[in-house]
Each structure stands twice: as structure tokens, then as C-alpha cells.
């Protein structure tokens, strides 16, 4: 008895102690930079008082203490129709989710979006900075705001199966519930409709492989008795060699709303689910391409035929599909729960798509020459406008629109690949800034101008960033640019033995910026597609994830430097992975390297040439030669003389002898070079101190 009391007391003390160390949330909207609101209310800030109240009323009706809101849909996409987070919080970034309780509202996002979220959200919202020390995880925040048995709701259509599992596991004895009726959608006036645009065949001359062959490869990746369920829109577009025009949000991709089933058994036809399928089959030779009839049915024994059905019937068909259901590892909860025998597996289609075939790889490089030429043509014109004061009314937005219009003139262009990031001065410090009417700034001659843009073409998706200055840059701007350029070259010139993962490759880009105590809060590179999405998995270049990297993959090489409230520098080129052509290798191993696809020169005015090593100079000379040879020739063939001149002024050959001593790492003694270099050295030391 006594011992029981002792135990009881000890247990109570333990509970009490635990309560005091439990992660109490002291976060409020005032932890943000721009709250409470003063007279400088950001122009793009949204008042969410009413929508939050209406949502809380609906939560009460459902008996929910917490409701978690994401932008995702059943295809794990986030088009305008599904931007629930923007609807409820005002935050329009592509990455982030909201947690609403009966008296608090939180938005969780990563460092790329801190400034944007702080601007766009009103002071009803707490900003949960993901990955920043001192901030709780979403789980511990929810735990600290709720009691045992409180209910936490997640919408099945907008949640992945694994994140639902993670909430269930991490929220201990809270009642984590699947919600099947979208609470935000209930009161969403003027919700943009789910798009339903025409689809068209991506022809063999571009794809280099027919869809029947791709389907055989997919069948080979699963076992007897299996059916591969495809919910990822780029995978479906790739598998069937079809493109559409349904995804025109923050990223603009030639995708179409769909689902697909590919059974292992070749006697069973694959099924493609499309919105308004009958109308689509009648257009653009779709019926002939898929070899089905007007009703989307297949004639008997026609193994090459694809059955076509209505998009929404996918959810009623799935439970009646007898084979074992092989789902993607990253699968929507609603899809997962409709499957009768769900087995989650990484989709083999991801890697099939990421490793370009020889036709795609060759055509992609041709596409990049044209896209590089379009950017050079724009810059030659634009710089003349600004530097020579031909017009003083250029803004971030009008510049972006003009560049977009040049890309659209390309006969195989199908629009832009994402909203052009045209940003000057402090706006460029916001990683995923896109100009709007409210934030638009005049282009000046005394700030850095960062331009990140890309196009969609039948032969590739592009993405390129260059940073410019139309007057005289400061020493710290030049130091930032030069350091970022060293990172670009560090990655682009790396040679590594086959088999090494992407996290190690990334170090080549990080090293120069880490050496200065800087860094950047985003990946060095992402995969990029062949007329699909501008960001393509499964691999990326980031020290935080070890992924496969093999020949014929394409990546961006895009390090940066951002000084909040002042300026941003980012330089981005697309590179392809290829076998290194060295004469003899250790143990006869295969070595890999990158080759440049994007051929747009860098800005000499922003480069401290004295800081470049011999190897960096050699790389830059080779790159400039390629730019002249390919981009230059293309521009000449189109009669773009101003653009050719602009290009030539930026691709002059450098001496490959740095004017500092390679062995002592010191500047040469004597003469004015010393004074210059020493003054520079002092300035950079000072800047390093200030910037770090
Ligand atoms: C937001 O809207 C509410 C309701 O219309 C209003 O009471 C409140 O003053 C507004 N807040 C701001 C900061 O304008
Ligand atoms: C938020 O603000 C409170 C009150 O000023 C402070 O105690 C707390 O440390 C801040 N939290 C973070 C993560 O900055
Ligand atoms: C929100 O939608 C629900 C369901 O349609 C409805 O019952 C409720 O009255 C609506 N609330 C407002 C404020 O319109
Ligand atoms: C691919 O399909 C096209 C017509 O759709 C046909 O002309 C071509 O021969 C096929 N190629 C292969 C390799 O099967
Ligand atoms: C700038 O102003 C001129 C003259 O008013 C006009 O023709 C031109 O279209 C304007 N340019 C931009 C980029 O707005
Ligand atoms: Mn990019």
C-alpha cells in the first residue's frame, strides 16, 4: 500500500515535471518581423479574419479542434483549384501548410518563403519556420495546443497516406481523423474550376520511344498478378506520350488531370482516366493514338489498345480491379483507401523518365541553345534600354512580360515553365519572389537585377537564372557574384566515379560558399524534364538527400547568395550528366561529369577575375567558346546582330594565368597590382565580417 502511494507520488511528480518541460508554445504572430501591423502594411497582405471565422464555424460543426490544410489534390498537384492554403491564409507560395485551431492559426513553411509569408499573411497568422532552431515541429506545436482525445482533422483528398500515418504516430493520443468533405471548399466563393483543356500527342520524333514500348517497360517493373496504379501526372503524360495544358499555376506544365492503371498481364489493356474523355478522344487523333473506339473501349485481342474512361470513375473502379494494387510510395490518402490490396512501391517510372533517351537528350541540348539565344536577345535589348536610358518606365513585370513574349515566338514553344522571377534589389533576396502589380518595382541602374525564367518547348523544359547590374556594382555585390560563380563552376566541372550519390556531388557547389561562411537555404539543383515539369524527381542535388545520378540525367546548377532587405544573386544553368572522356582511369572505373546545356554568358562587370583559379579560368574560357559557337551561331542565323554583339562582349578570352601565386596563395609582390589586390583583400575581409 505504502509503496503504491510512493509510486503514485513519484508518478505525479514525473507528470508535473513532464508538463513543465513539454514544448509549450509561446509563439505568437508577433514573432514575425511584420507583426503587429504598423503603417507599412505590405501591399500584398490579405485580410483573413472572415474566412478564418467561417472555417472555425465549420470545424465546430464537425467537432474538430484542429484542421490541417494543404494545397495538394489526389494527383499530388496544387493547381489554382486546390490552393486552399492561399484561400485561408493569403500565403501563395507553393510549399507550406496551415494548422487552424479554435483560437490560433499557423503557417509552416521553409526558408525560401519566410519573407513572402510574412508579407502576404495578416497578423492572424503565426509563422512556424521549418528547420529554424527554437521553433517547434508542427507535431509538438499541435500537442502543446491540444489535450488528450482532441480531434485533429486532415482532408483525405489533400493528404498523402504517409503524412496521415506520421500525424497518427506523432500526435500520441490525439484523435487523428480522416475528413472526406473539404471544410475550406464549403465556403469558397469564386473557387477556380478544375481545368479541363485539350490534350495532344507528343509525337515519336520528339519522344524517341512509343508509348507501347514504355508500357512494356512498366510491365517489366512489376510482378505477375500486379497492376501499377499511376497517379502522378508527369508519369502519366510520359507513359502515354500525351501532353495537355491543365497546370498553369506557379509552375506551368503541359499536364492533364488523369489516373492510369497498367496491369502486368499483357492480355489486360491499360486504362487511362480522363476528364470529359469522349470529347478528348474525338480530337487531335487521340482515339487513333490509343487505338480505342469512341466509347474508349478496346476491340477484343487488341493488346496495343488503351481503354479510356471518365476521370471520376477511377475511385469506383479501383476497388473492383482484382489484381494486386501497386501504388506509388507517395500516394494520396483517398487513392490509398480506395485500393483493396494496397502495396506501396517507389515508382520505377520516375527513373525511366529522368534518364533521357538519346533522342530526348540530343534534342534537349538543341532546345537549350534556342532558349539561351532567346534570353541573350532579351538581355541585349533590355540592357540597352536601361543603360542608355531609352525608356525609364521598365519595371520587373514589364521586363518579365517582354522576355516571355520573345520565348513565345519560338515555333515549338508552348509557353513559360514557371512565372518569371524578375526582381531588382531587395526583391531578389526573396527566393521565390514573383513580381505582381502590388510589389512591382522600377528597374534601376544602381541595384542587382536577378532574372530566373524558363520555357516549355516540345523538345524540352528550360530554367535559367542570371544576375545583372546596369550601373556600377559595389564591392560586396561583386564578391557575392564571384563566390556564387565559383560554386557554379565547382559543380559544373566536377568529375566523379560512377556510383557516387547526389549528396556528395552537391559538395562541389557548396564548398566555395561555405568557405566564406555563407550558404543558401535551397537545393543546388533539381532534375528537369523533357516537356513536363520544371522540377523533376526522383533525384536532386542537395547534401540532405542521397539519390542516384547516372548519364543522360539533367540537373540545374543554381547556387545563390541572399542578403535580406538588400539584394540577391543566383546563377542557374542546366547541365547534363555524361561519361567523362579521360584517357585512363583508376582501376578502369567509369567517371562521370557534367556538360553545359544552358549557354548564356556570365556578367564580366560582376566578376572579380583576380579571385578565379587557373582551373576556373579554363572552365570559363571553354564555356564562353561554347556560348559563342552555339548560341552565337543561332543568333547570327536569325540576323540578331545586337544580341551577337552583346554575347561577344561577354565571351572574351581570359588569360589562364591568375595574377596571384598558386603555391603561396598570395598576390604577386610589388607594383600597382599589389595595391589593388591588397585593397580588395581588405575590403573583402571587411565584407566577409559584415556579411557573415
Ligand atoms: C480585417 O477584416 C475585418 C472584418 O472585415 C475587420 O474588422 C478588420 O479591421 C480588418 N483588419 C485589418 C487589419 O484591416
Ligand atoms: C517568440 O516571441 C517570444 C516573446 O517575445 C519569445 O519568448 C520567443 O523566444 C520567440 N520565439 C522564437 C522561436 O523566436
Ligand atoms: C459555409 O458552408 C456551409 C456548408 O455549405 C454552410 O452550412 C454555412 O452556412 C456556410 N457559412 C457561411 C458563413 O456562408
Ligand atoms: C512508333 O509509332 C509510330 C507511329 O505512331 C511509327 O511510325 C513508328 O514506326 C513507331 N516506332 C517504333 C520504334 O515502334
Ligand atoms: C514606356 O513608355 C513609352 C512611352 O510612353 C511606351 O511607348 C512604352 O510602351 C512604355 N514601356 C513600358 C515597358 O511600359
Ligand atoms: Mn531552377
TrEMBL record:
Which protein are we looking at?
DgyrCDS6362
Under Pfam families, the record lists: Creatinase_N, Creatinase_N_2, Peptidase_M24, Peptidase_M24_C
Annotated Creatinase N-terminal domain ranges read: 53-180
Q: Name one GO molecular function term.
A: aminopeptidase activity
Query: What Gene3D superfamilies is this protein classified in?
Result: Creatinase/methionine aminopeptidase superfamily, Creatinase/prolidase N-terminal domain
List the signal peptide residues. Answer: 1-19
Q: What family does this belong to?
A: Belongs to the peptidase M24B family.
InterPro entries recorded for this chain?
Answer: Creatin/AminoP/Spt16_N (IPR029149), Creatinase/aminopeptidase-like (IPR036005), Creatinase_N (IPR000587), Pept_M24 (IPR000994), Peptidase_M24_C (IPR032416), X-Pro_aminopeptidase_P (IPR050422)
All copies of the Peptidase M24 domain together span: 377-579
What SUPFAM superfamilies does the entry give?
A: Creatinase/aminopeptidase (SSF55920), Creatinase/prolidase N-terminal domain (SSF53092)
> Source species, please?
Dimorphilus gyrociliatus
Domain (Peptidase M24 C-terminal): give its ranges.
591-654
Q: Which UniProt keywords apply?
A: Signal
Amino acid at each position: 500500500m505504502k509503496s503504491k502511494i510512493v509510486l503514485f507520488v513519484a508518478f505525479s511528480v514525473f507528470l508535473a515535471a513532464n508538463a513543465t518541460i513539454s514544448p509549450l508554445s509561446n509563439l505568437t504572430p508577433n514573432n514575425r518581423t511584420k507583426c503587429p501591423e504598423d503603417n507599412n502594411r505590405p501591399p500584398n497582405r490579405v485580410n483573413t479574419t472572415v474566412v478564418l471565422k467561417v472555417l472555425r464555424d465549420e470545424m465546430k460543426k464537425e467537432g474538430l479542434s484542429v484542421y490541417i490544410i494543404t494545397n495538394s489534390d489526389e494527383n499530388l498537384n496544387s493547381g489554382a483549384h486546390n490552393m486552399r492554403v492561399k484561400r485561408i491564409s493569403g500565403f501563395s507560395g507553393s510549399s507550406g501548410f496551415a494548422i487552424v485551431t479554435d483560437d490560433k492559426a499557423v503557417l509552416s513553411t521553409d526558408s525560401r518563403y519566410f519573407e513572402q509569408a510574412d508579407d502576404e499573411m495578416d497578423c492572424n497568422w503565426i509563422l512556424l519556420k521549418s528547420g529554424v532552431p527554437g521553433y517547434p515541429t508542427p507535431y509538438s506545436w499541435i500537442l502543446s495546443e491540444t489535450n488528450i482525445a482532441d480531434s485533429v482533422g486532415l482532408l483525405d483528398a489533400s493528404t498523402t497516406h504517409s503524412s496521415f500515418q506520421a500525424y497518427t504516430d506523432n500526435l500520441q493520443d490525439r484523435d487523428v481523423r480522416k475528413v472526406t468533405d473539404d471544410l475550406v471548399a464549403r465556403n469558397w466563393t469564386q473557387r477556380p474550376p478544375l481545368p479541363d483543356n485539350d490534350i495532344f500527342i507528343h509525337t515519336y520524333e520528339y519522344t524517341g520511344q512509343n508509348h507501347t514500348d514504355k508500357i512494356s517497360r512498366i510491365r517489366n517493373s512489376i510482378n505477375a498478378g500486379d497492376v501499377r496504379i499511376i497517379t502522378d501526372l508527369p508519369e502519366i503524360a510520359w507513359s502515354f506520350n500525351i501532353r495537355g495544358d491543365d497546370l498553369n499555376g506557379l509552375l506551368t506544365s503541359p499536364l492533364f488531370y488523369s489516373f492510369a492503371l497498367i496491369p502486368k498481364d499483357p492480355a489486360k489493356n491499360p486504362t487511362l482516366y480522363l476528364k470529359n474523355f469522349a470529347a478528348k478522344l474525338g480530337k487531335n487523333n487521340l482515339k487513333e493514338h490509343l487505338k480505342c473506339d469512341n466509347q474508349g473501349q478496346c476491340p477484343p485481342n487488341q493488346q496495343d489498345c488503351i481503354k479510356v474512361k471518365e476521370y471520376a470513375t477511377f475511385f469506383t473502379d479501383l476497388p473492383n480491379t482484382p489484381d494486386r494494387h501497386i501504388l506509388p510510395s507517395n500516394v494520396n490518402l483517398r487513392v490509398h483507401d480506395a485500393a483493396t490490396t494496397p502495396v506501396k512501391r517507389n515508382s520505377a517510372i520516375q527513373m525511366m523518365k529522368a534518364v533521357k533517351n538519346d533522342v530526348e537528350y540530343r534534342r534537349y541540348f538543341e532546345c537549350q541553345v534556342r532558349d539561351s539565344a532567346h534570353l541573350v536577345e532579351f538581355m541585349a535589348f533590355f540592357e540597352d534600354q536601361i543603360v542608355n536610358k531609352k525608356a525609364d518606365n521598365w519595371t520587373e513585370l514589364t521586363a518579365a512580360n517582354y522576355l516571355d513574349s520573345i520565348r513565345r515566338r519560338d515555333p515549338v514553344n508552348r509557353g513559360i515553365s514557371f512565372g518569371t522571377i524578375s526582381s531588382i534589389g531587395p526583391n531578389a533576396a526573396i527566393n521565390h519572389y514573383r513580381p505582381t502589380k502590388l510589389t512591382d518595382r522600377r528597374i534601376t541602374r544602381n541595384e542587382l537585377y536577378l532574372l530566373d525564367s524558363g520555357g516549355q518547348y516540345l523538345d524540352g523544359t528550360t530554367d535559367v537564372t542570371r544576375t545583372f547590374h546596369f550601373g556600377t556594382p559595389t564591392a560586396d555585390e561583386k564578391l557575392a557574384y564571384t563566390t556564387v560563380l565559383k560554386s557554379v563552376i565547382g559543380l559544373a566541372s566536377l568529375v566523379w566515379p560512377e556510383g557516387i550519390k547526389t549528396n556528395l556531388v552537391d559538395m562541389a557547389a557548396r564548398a566555395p560558399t561555405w568557405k566564406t561562411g555563407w550558404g543558401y537555404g535551397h537545393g543546388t539543383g533539381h532534375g528537369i524534364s523533357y516537356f513536363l515539369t520544371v522540377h523533376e524527381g526522383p533525384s536532386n542535388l542537395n547534401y540532405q538527400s542521397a539519390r542516384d545520378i547516372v548519364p543522360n540525367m539533367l540537373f540545374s546548377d543554381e547556387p545563390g547568395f541572399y542578403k535580406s532587405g538588400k539584394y540577391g544573386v543566383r546563377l542557374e544553368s542546366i547541365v547534363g550528366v555524361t561519361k567523362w572522356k579521360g584517357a585512363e582511369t583508376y582501376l578502369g572505373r567509369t567517371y562521370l561529369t557534367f556538360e553545359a546545356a544552358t549557354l548564356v554568358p556570365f556578367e564580366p562587370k560582376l566578376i572579380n577575375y583576380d579571385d578565379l583559379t587557373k582551373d576556373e579560368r579554363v572552365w570559363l574560357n571553354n564555356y564562353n567558346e561554347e556560348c559563342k559557337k552555339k548560341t552565337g551561331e543561332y543568333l547570327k542565323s536569325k540576323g540578331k546582330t545586337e544580341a551577337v554583339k552583346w554575347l561577344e562582349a561577354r565571351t572574351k578570352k581570359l588569360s589562364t594565368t591568375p595574377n596571384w601565386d598558386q603555391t603561396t596563395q598570395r598576390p604577386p609582390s610589388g607594383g600597382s597590382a599589389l595595391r589593388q589586390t591588397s585593397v580588395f583583400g581588405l575590403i573583402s575581409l571587411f565584407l566577409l565580417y559584415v556579411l557573415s
